[in-house]
Amino acid sequence: MLLKDRVAIITGGGRGIGRGTALRFAREGAKLALVDIEQAHLDETARELEAAGSGAEHILLRGDVSSSADVQGFFDATVERFGRLDILVNNAGIGTPPVPIINMPEEAWDRTLSVNLKSVFLCSKLAALQFIKQKTRGRIISVASQAGKTGYAYLTPYCASKAGIILFTQAFAKELGAQGINVNCVCPGTIDTPLLRGAGVGLKMDDATFNGFIKNVLPAITLGRIGTPDDVAKVITFLASDEAEYMTGQAINITGGQEMH
Ligand SMILES: NC(=O)c1ccc[n+]([C@@H]2O[C@H](COP(=O)([O-])OP(=O)(O)OC[C@H]3O[C@@H](n4cnc5c(N)ncnc54)[C@H](O)[C@@H]3O)[C@@H](O)[C@H]2O)c1
């Protein structure tokens, strides 16, 4: 088992990539603190953990990753329950409805930057403080995006937030290297989750619309298929494990070859 008895906080653990990561971490022996703003999402992940039969210990923490009070509560509850922390996965994020920047409401900009980027600062700061207190070599892994490496028209705040995660990762990795704390991020491409199907912006695409959308995207994907949450979870698991001990400050593409730099 790659993560036997490691204690991990996974934000956005209620759905999509966060749920996929929770399931894979459980299989690898981790103990989980799952954070989400939606209780129903957390409950469904808990059901899937039970169904998978991993027996992984887990707690469910409802709250908003962009609220410093909520974030403090997630860390306090995790350490109270498990006595320590080894891994933080900053996964929670939202999309923005496609809007030209000249029409972008200020609130949409602020909310996207708060949920996607400020949350990474709030959670990573508390994780680092906990690792330093424990004198342990912790891991911080954030979920950025290929949209943090290449700009996509009409998704400006999303792209800016994800590019911010990549440079936050590099700078924080340099701050924490001397303590043996590894800070990395992943940059997924087109991954089949509720967010991709429109839920991130309060919509739900019907299957015909989704299939049409995917047909347009596929020519850009070298491996010829869209990704699954588990495609991303496998790389996050590797980065959380001892196998990635000599990697820090990296932004790893998981795009089937859609993004190559
Ligand atoms: N799906 C993709 O194609 C794709 C591609 C690149 C990057 N990403 C990134 O991966 C991450 C996960 O995306 P997903 O596709 O699994 O999305 P999703 O919408 O399926 O799941 C995200 C989860 O985060 C939770 N969440 C949202 N806002 C929150 C908040 N303020 N506080 C706590 N929890 C919150 C949601 O309730 C949901 O359960 C995001 O950061 C997203 O930007 C996704």
What is the fold's blueprint, element by element?
Blueprint: E1 7-11, H1 16-27, E2 31-36, H2 39-52, E3 58-62, H3 68-82, E4 87-90, H4 106-134, E5 139-143, H5 156-176, E6 182-188, H6 207-217, H7 229-240, E7 251-254
Parallel strand pairs: 1-2, 1-4, 2-3, 4-5, 5-6, 6-7
Helix pairs in contact: 1-2, 1-7, 3-4, 4-5
Bound molecules: nicotinamide-adenine-dinucleotide.
Structure, briefly:
With 261 residues, this protein is an alpha/beta fold.
Strand order in space, largest sheet: 3-2-1-4-5-6-7
**N→C terminal distance:** 32 Å
The assigned structural class equals alpha/beta
CATH superfamily: NAD(P)-binding Rossmann-like Domain
How many domains is the backbone divided into? Answer: 1
Can you count the beta strands?
7
What is the correct CATH architecture?
Answer: 3-Layer(aba) Sandwich
- Mean pLDDT across the residues is 97
- Determine Rg (CA atoms, Å): 17 Å
Given as residue ranges, the uncertain stretches (5+ residues, pLDDT < 50) are none
What ligand molecules are bound, each kind once? nicotinamide-adenine-dinucleotide
Principal-axes shape call: globular
Q: What is the C-level CATH assignment?
A: Alpha Beta
Largest beta sheet, briefly?
A: 7 strands, parallel
